[in-house]
Design the sequence.
DNA sequence: ATAAACCCTGTACCTAAGTACGATGTCAAG
DNA sequence: CTTGACATCGTACTTAGGTACAGGGTTTAT
């Protein structure tokens, strides 16, 4: 069980088979060796690779950014600072998203407070506010 | 200047002409009257309608939800409470998004702190964390 | 009267991150 | 030796919210 087929890798890494092919097309996982008949053969390392991708995604990195992280890892000319910078950019980015959502939340909260919850919708102050 | 063509409406409402056609297809704006030659003729009300859509979008409502808001407005059987409920659902929704982003932000902040910013990227603790 | 600037329709394209499918080939079990 | 479960490929479809043509017709300004 040292070598994995696409389906086995998919199961172990908890992704769809098609996702693996997709990641390969996107260059996120290297092209694996093939059997005589053309079947892909993956090593155990591939599980870790897919999990790396999944974790980075959970941290808000796009697949494009994941590629960059993966390249940084391999390129001997890059250093830690490059990685750290990417993390910082992403943090800033996420902070902005949070602020935007907070502004929206406050606006909605005010609108909610303006509405008594009775009477026809046609005269709802929430809808009227949107009309202004 | 009482009546507007698509292009004039687009300019007044600050949207792309194609967006107007798109909203019409989606049923967000009613089909306007047409001139002899088939040109759409919009009233001033249409500007307000598009602005309603834009504002609702800014508050995080999808176009599908905007449709619902618009229907509520017209339907005499609905009341304010329905609108208020939609606002509440959206607020909850946005709160969840904020929390998710905050968790991500914290995870990233920790990772950033773990990295001194020097040394080869191959040994960066941020990347190592993703490998775990 | 003619060119520029509009408008019409239908359809294709865009981003992101996959998912689904049809046609075909291969492998393992009974 | 056949059936079922897998594998391959290329391509199309998905969601959301538009945007961009191409190939026509119309209006307006000069």
Sequence:
């Amino acid at each position: 069980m040292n070598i994995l087929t696409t389906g086995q890798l998919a199961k172990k890494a908890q992704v769809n088979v098609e996702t693996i092919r997709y990641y390969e097309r996107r260059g996120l996982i290297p092209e694996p060796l093939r059997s005589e008949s053309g079947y892909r053969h993956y090593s155990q390392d591939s599980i870790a690779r897919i999990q790396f991708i999944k974790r980075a995604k959970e941290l808000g990195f796009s697949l494009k950014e994941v590629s960059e992280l993966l390249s940084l890892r391999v390129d001997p000319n890059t250093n830690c600072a490059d990685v750290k910078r990417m993390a910082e950019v992403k943090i800033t980015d996420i902070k902005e998203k949070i602020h935007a959502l907070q502004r929206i939340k406050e606006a909605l909260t005010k609108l909610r407070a303006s509405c008594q919850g009775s009477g026809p919708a046609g005269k709802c102050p929430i809808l009227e506010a949107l009309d202004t």
